Amino acid sequence: MSARRIVQRGLWFEEFETDVVYDHRPGRTITEADNVLFTTLTMNTQALHLDAAFAAETAFGQRLVNSMFTLSTLIGLSVAQLTQGTIVANLGFGEVAFPKPLFHGDTLYASTVVTDLRESRSRPGEGVVTFAHTGTNQHGDVVATAVRSTLVRKRPSGD
């Protein structure tokens, strides 16, 4: 007799519900190394991310976490719960905003609301899911929002 096996995966198209808040945990504490590595890997030489002396003289008083790292991490935090192994493709992003900065040592938490679901007209067995992602820091301040459209697989027959 073999043990029952459960494989972690995201949700099939049919499992998504609109107007439900999906909280993604754990959060991710952002380090200086994360920010500097991402910033240099992507050739973003913005002094606000790399130059502590320069950043100290700005209104923020310190370096900011690269907003593209914030966005990437926000989406990444949702993957295990929502799209791991079930996504076909990202179709696009819209309405991306960074209302407050994220700093070294801050923890980013993510939540997602599904705002729209529709079956694909051109790809049988798949559907379009629109997500509204929200990132908050450890104080509950909203630091990032993004609307993302994805193509997601429907449940395979026999599952």
How are helices and strands ordered from N to C?
EHHHHEEEE
CATH topology name, in short, is: Thiol Ester Dehydrase, Chain A
Counting helices, strands and paired strands, the structural category is alpha+beta
Mean pLDDT over the residues: 95
Number of domain units: 1
Shape: elongated
At CATH level 2, the architecture is Roll
Q: What separation lies between the terminal Cα atoms?
A: 21 Å
How would you name the CATH homologous superfamily?
A: Hotdog Thioesterase
Identify the strand order in the major beta sheet. 1-3-4-5-2
Roughly what percent helix?
Answer: 10-25%
Rg result: 18 Å
How many strands, which pairing sense, and closed or not: the largest β-sheet? 5 strands, antiparallel
**Regarding quaternary structure, how should these chains be classified?**
single chain
Helix count equals: 4
Q: What is the name of the CATH class?
A: Alpha Beta
Strand content: 35-45%
Catalogue the unreliable spans.
none
The count of DSSP E runs of length 2 or more, i.e. the number of strands, is 5
Family: Belongs to the enoyl-CoA hydratase/isomerase family.
Pfam families: MaoC_dehydratas
Domain MaoC-like: 19-133
Protein name: MaoC family dehydratase
Task: Write a short abstract of this structure.
The chain is an alpha+beta fold and 159 residues long.
